Amino acid sequence: MADPKGFMTTPRQDWARRPVEERVRDWDEVYVPGALLPIISKQADRCMDCGIPFCHDACPLGNLIPEWNDLVSREDWRAAADRLHATNNFPEFTGRLCPAPCEAGCVLAINQPAVTIKNVECAIADRAWEEGFAPPRPPERLSGKTVAVIGSGPTGLAAAQQLTRAGHTVAVYERADRPGGLMRYGIPEFKMEKHHLERRLEQMLAEGTKFRTSTSVGREIGADELRTRYDAVVLATGATAWRELTVPGRELAGIHQAMEYLPLSNRVCAGDLEASPLSAAGKHVVIVGGGDTGADCLGTAVREGAASVTQLDIYALPEAERDEDAEPWPTYPIRIYRLSAAHEEARDLRTAPVADADARLFAASTLRFDGDAEGHVRSLHLVEVDARRRPVDGTGRTLPADLVLLALGFSGPDREDGLVDQLGLAMEPRGTVARDAGFATNVPGVFAAGDAARGQSLIVWAIAEGRAVAAAVDRHLTGSSRLPSPIGPYDRPMVV
User: Fold this and answer.
1) Cβ atoms of residues 110 and 329 within 8 Å
2) Collapsing DSSP states into helix, strand and coil, what is residue 464?
3) How far apart are alpha carbons 418 and 435 in whole angstroms?
4) Residue limits of the 4Fe-4S ferredoxin-type domain (predicted)?
C-alpha cells in the first residue's frame, strides 16, 4: 500500500473525454489521448489494500486488483502487467468495454467514489503494449491434441489462447470474414478502436492459434466432420438470436435489429463500404431498448448525422445513487442512472427534445408503428407504463420515425446454421446450450461456454468462461490441468 492516506487525500478523477463537438465528427475513441497516464498513479494510490478486497469477488476473473494498484502507484509497470495478465487475457478490452462490477464492489464505494479500477487496468494494458511487456507465449512443446473453437468473440479467443499456450493445436472457426465476434462488428469504433483487437490476434497467431474465417460450421463444414477432425470442440458462438418486438407495423421497411445496423457502420470504418445502406443520416431515429446495445446505436446514429435520435427504455428513470435496500453494496447496481459517452453526446446536442434525460424516454412501451403509402415506417406510437409495465391512461404519444432500431437483447445461440441440431445438443428452456459442471454438453468431446450457454452477459464473464472452459478441455484431453478456472458454469454475479 503505497499511500495509506491516498483514499482520504486524493479525489477520484476519471479519464477525460474529448469535447462532444469534436468527437462526434469522427469515429476515434472518445477519451483524450494520453490523458490517463499523468493521473493514474495517484488514482491507484486511492486503493486501500483492504484485508478482504470485495473487488475480487465482484470480478469473475478474480483480478488481483489491490496488487496491481500498488504496483502502478509505484510505477512498476512490468510487474503490474504481469499481475494483470495472470488473470485476464485481454485487459485492454475489459478496460474499455466492461461496466466494472469491481468498482461497485470496491470497499471505498461504501461511502466515497470507488477507485478507478477500470482506468488503472486500461493504463496497465496500454503501457504493456508500448513497453513490450506482452510478447507472444508459444508453448514449449505440443501435446498432439487438436481443438476446434467455434466463435471468435471474447470467450472463444480466451479459450483458444489458453489451450494454445497449454500445447494443444487450436483452430478458431468464425463465420464472419474477420475474427473478433461482437468486438469486431458489434462494438463501435468510438468505444474500442479495432487496432486493439488486431494486436491481440497477431499475438495469438504468433503463439500458434489458427483462424478459419468465412466458415459457418454447420454449413461449410458439418458437425460430424468437425468432431472427426478434432479431439475436442468448444462451442463459443455467443447469444446472437435477437429478441423481436411483436407489435402492429413491425413488417414496415425501415425497422431493423441493432445487429443489422451496427455491423454496417463498423464496415464503413474498416473501409469495406463507402457508406452504410442503413445510415441514419438525415433521419428521425428511434431506438427501442435501454441497454448498452441501444447506447451503441445512439452514438452511431449521432455520428452518422441523424435529424433526431430518441432511445426508449421500458424501465422508470433510475435514481442517481444505488438503492441500498434493493441493491446493497457490494452488488452491482443495475438500476442506477448512468451517463455513457453516447448519452452525454445526445444530451449536449439535444438529439431528442422530448426526452426525459439525455436522449432517453423512460417507462416507455411501443404500441405500434405507422408507415407511408410505400410501406416505410414514419412514426412510432408509445405509451407510458407503470412499474408492472401496465399502460398508464392518457400518456400516449407519437414520435417521428424514419429508422427504428430494435435493441432488445438476445435469447441464445443462432440456430439457423444447423450446428446445434447437427450435434444433437441438449438445450435449456430459455434457449441456451445445456452443460454440466465441467462445461461439457451431452455430446462427448463437445463443450459450451460464453453467452451461448450462460446467456447474454458481460465481456468480463465471457473471458472468465473462456479461461474456465479451456481448463476443462485441457483436463479432458490430458487427465489433469494447470490452467486456471476462475468460475464454474453455474456461478452468477453477486446479488441480494
Assistant:
1) yes
2) helix
3) 19
4) 38-69
Q: How many CB atoms lie within 10 A of CB 375?
A: 10
Between CA 31 and CA 23 the distance in angstroms is: 9
Q: Is the pLDDT of residue 2 over 80?
A: no
* CA–CA separation, 134 and 423 (whole Å): 37
User: For residue 173, what are the β-bridge partners?
Assistant: 150, 212
Give yes or no for a contact between 177 and 193, defined as CB atoms under 8 angstroms apart. no
Spatial separation of the C-alpha atoms in residues 418 and 397, rounded to whole Å:
42
Specify the residue for cell string 404519444: 397
Instruction: Indicate the pLDDT class of residue 1, thresholds 50, 70 and 90.
Output: low
Instruction: Select from 324, 410, 395 the least CA-distant residue to 363.
Output: 395
Grid coordinates given for 254: 425501415
Cis ω before 19 (30° cut-off from 0): no
Say which residues have a Cβ less than 8 Å from residue 111's Cβ, sequence separation at least 6: none
Of 9, 117, 123, give the one whose Cα is nearest residue 54. Answer: 117
Output the pTM of the full model.
Answer: 0.97
Amino acid at 147: V
Q: Say how far apart CA 153 and CA 168 lie, in whole Å.
A: 20
Q: What is the pLDDT of residue 51?
A: 87
- pLDDT, position 496: 77
d(CA 322, CA 337): 9
Characterize 116-142 residue by residue with b for buried, 16 or more Cβ atoms within 10 angstroms of its Cβ, and e for exposed: bbbbbbbbbbbbbbeeebbeeeeeeee
**62 neighbors 486 (Cβ within 8 angstroms):** yes
Residues in the chain, how many? 496
pLDDT of residue 22 exceeding 70, the answer is yes
**Distance set, CA 252 to CA 29, 82, 310, 372, 377 (Å):** 34, 53, 19, 9, 5
For the segment 64-91, what is each residue's pLDDT rounded down to a tens digit?
999 999 999 999 999 999 999 999 999 9
For residues 203-217, average pLDDT: 98
Q: How far apart are CA 421 and CA 344, in angstroms?
A: 44
The dihedral region occupied by 213, where left means phi > 0, alpha psi between -120 and 50, and beta the remainder, is: beta
d(CA 219, CA 229): 16
SS3 493: coil
Nearest-angstrom CA–CA distance, 330 and 326: 12
Place of cell 430494435: 406
Let me know: does 359 contact 346? Beta carbons within 8 Å.
yes
Q: C-alpha grid cell for residue 288?
A: 427501442
